[in-house]
């Protein structure tokens, strides 16, 4: 976590209320712009005045950005700026972003979905779902892309590692939280279900 800078005037008492609010919105926007990961409420509260509502400032910033090519997205317990999906093709056409794409196989996505729905889950738990061993390489690829992380050790003999999804996972799939995952019964009905 960042430490509060003593030279930052958080309360801005010399500004009229409307300009003070606008300045707090811009500070939040700047922090979100500079961060590659979602920024939690507590960190955003460090740049605004005492008692200012981060949620209301975020809502006003979202409204202010309406119609722009980027938006404020709630990811897990924080917020980040991201390009609106409608502009993905334009970005691919103009910039070299191939290395940023997930480039996951269908099986990789299935394993990732199983982890999302059953977390925390061990490799043995994944084997039970898929009927075969899940390679350390596959787990390593998902971990290297920061889509999964190690969770708590399993209470079973040998205390194997468990795996959980990350905020990067939420952001990559446009989810605010795990509650936004599609209903498993609907996925199974569509032939895409996770056991």
SSE blueprint and pairings:
Blueprint: H1 17-34, E1 39-40, H2 41-45, H3 54-64, E2 70-75, E3 78-83, H4 88-94, H5 106-118, H6 123-130, H7 136-144, E4 148-150, E5 163-165, H8 167-172, H9 184-189
Antiparallel strand pairs: 1-3, 2-3, 4-5
Helix pairs in contact: 1-3
Textual characterization of the structure:
It is built from 9 helices and 5 strands, in the order αβααββααααββαα. It is mainly alpha-helical and 195 residues long. The strands form 2 sheets. The protein has a 3-stranded antiparallel beta sheet with strand order 1-3-2. A hairpin with a 2-residue loop joins strand 2 and strand 3. The longest helix is centred in the N-terminal third of the chain and has 18 residues.
Radius of gyration of CA atoms, rounded to a whole number? 21 Å
Low-confidence stretches: none
Q: Can you count the beta strands? A: 5
Order of helices and strands: HEHHEEHHHHEEHH
Report the major sheet: 3 strands, antiparallel
Overall average residue pLDDT: 87
Enumerate how many helices there are, as a single number: 9
From the structure above, extract its key features.
9 helices; two-stranded antiparallel sheet; 195 residues
Summarize the structure.
The chain has 195 residues and is mainly alpha-helical.
